[in-house]
Amino acid sequence: MKSKGLTLTIIFQAESANYGEGIGNVASLKKISRNKGDQYTYISRQAIRYNIIEQLGEETAPVKAEGSGEKKVIQFSADATIDKYPEIDFFGYLKTEKSTSGRKRSAKVRLSNAISLETFKGDLDFLTNKGQADKVNENMNIAQAEIHKSYYRYTITADLDQIGIDDEYKIEIENKEKSRRVKKLLDTIAFLYRDIRGRREDLKPLFVIGGVYDIKNPVFQNVVDIKNNKILISDIQEVLFDNIKDETYCAVIGGKFDNGNEVNQKLNAKTMPEFFSIVKQKVDDYYEGN
């Protein structure tokens, strides 16, 4: 089967969507530092993976606990195989087995962290349980949580020629099923959301660029950016090499960015439904031709 990679780089907008360890009674967002100490919040790739699997609409792979006490490890069951469970087809597995080196499958669908494109300014939300405390005439509890609303960017890549094939178990599913799984993954990404602290955050794309290529590089991961609510088009154009230019598509939600019309003109942007229809057709064409 000819080597093919799918890659999409996505911008969405969300608020306070991934917390780490708290400090005292302050819930802290996950953050990284760049430049001269500027802080950017992020949603981990594990969190995005969890939401994708949760919303994929496929049966999840069974797990079991091995070992005892502090050494107990939760891992996929020995009879969990890729023909039954798209979860481990996409994201791989590691299974330890006594007297063997175990079984493992690397991820064929890979995600980056979703990193904010706007800096964190230290905003805090003041939280109480006054409504509940008043019911029993008790003093309320007080806590604080960091909050940050921002555009976020992440990239998803898929090794299309390795989907549905597992040498560990000598399994290969039919191309029609491979195509169905990848298209369902794309449908999930198109309407992705995240439930957190009583909120449902919308992670669907406001801007997306990518396609199906003969290369597997996450081409747009480090070039898609926003400044002053404008997508930096020139940075994108500089990586549109001849071998990917004709196979690259993008879409933008009208009215969200100040240069939306320029994006339409210079990058020939589609509507979001058109974009996902085109990419799903490319996936179909690949599997039907192999």
How would you explain this protein's 3D organization?
It is a single chain. The chain has 290 residues and is of the alpha+beta class. It has helices at 45-55, 86-91, 130-135, 175-190, 233-237, 242-245, 260-267, 272-288; strands spanning 5-15, 26-27, 31-34, 38-43, 63-66, 73-76, 93-95, 103-105, 109-111, 114-116, 124-128, 142-146, 149-159, 165-166, 171-172, 193-196, 199-202, 207-213, 226-227, 230-231, 249-252. Strands 1, 3, 4, 9, 10, 13, 18 and 21 form an eight-stranded antiparallel β-sheet that branches. It is globular.
Short description:
The chain has 290 residues and is of the alpha+beta class. It is built from eight helices and 21 strands. Strands 1, 3, 4, 9, 10, 13, 18 and 21 form an eight-stranded antiparallel β-sheet that branches.
